[in-house]
Every structure is written in C-alpha cells, then in structure tokens.
Amino acid sequence: MLITNELVTRALRQRHFTSGEDIELRVWMPADVVRVEIQGPRNLLPPPGAPDEPHDGLLIEKLADRWSMDTHERRACAWFEIDRHKLNVVPVP
C-alpha cells in the first residue's frame, strides 16, 4: 500500500490535478506475486532523478522486488511487483 500511495501521489502531483486525461490504477494479486500498475499520459511521473524529487523512488527501491517505468509514444506505465512467499507455519500440537 505504501508504494501504491507513493506512485499515485506523485502522478497526481505531477499532473497538478488539472489534466483532463485519465490515470488508471491496476492491481493483480495471484498466489505468487502482487503487481501494481499506474498508467496515464507519457509525463505521468517525473523522470528518475528529477530535481524536485529528492527521494525519487525511495520506497519502491527498498520494498519492491521488481519495478520499472515504461514509456510509449503517448502513454506511460509505472509498475512494481512484490513476490508473495508462503509463511512457514509450525502446527501447534
């Protein structure tokens, strides 16, 4: 939830709440991984190392197993994945 909040907040701040374009959030949670994507206009998120982003990607870099920001001609997709691991639960006698 923290990484998702970071991505959505940065996207809304970058767009200054004035864009008429949609921002779409998608979440998948199969048994082995959690994948979150935020999609929108190409300038959806500031590029890595932008001067106004002193802690750029801090949570995503620390908590996600994989992440990227893919850009296409008009659209961008920032995504991350977190592996889900089964807990080793010892049965109580």
| SS-derived structural category | alpha+beta
- Spans of at least 5 consecutive residues with low confidence: none
The N- to C-terminal Cα distance equals: 35 Å
Helix run count: 2
Structure overview:
By secondary structure, the protein is α+β, with helices and mostly antiparallel strands. The protein has one domain (2-83). The protein has two helices and four strands, in the order H-E-E-H-E-E. The chain has helices at 2-15, 58-63, and strands at residues 24-28, 33-41, 66-71, 75-83. Strands 1-2-4-3 form a four-stranded antiparallel sheet. A hairpin with a 3-residue loop joins strand 3 (66-71) and strand 4 (75-83). The protein starts with a helix and ends in a 10-residue tail after the last strand. The mean pLDDT is 79.
How is this fold's topology laid out?
Elements lengths: L1 H14 L8 E5 L4 E9 L16 H6 L2 E6 L3 E9 L10
Antiparallel strand pairs: 1-2, 2-4, 3-4
Which features would summarize this protein structure in a list?
about 90 residues; alpha+beta; four-stranded antiparallel sheet; about 30% strand
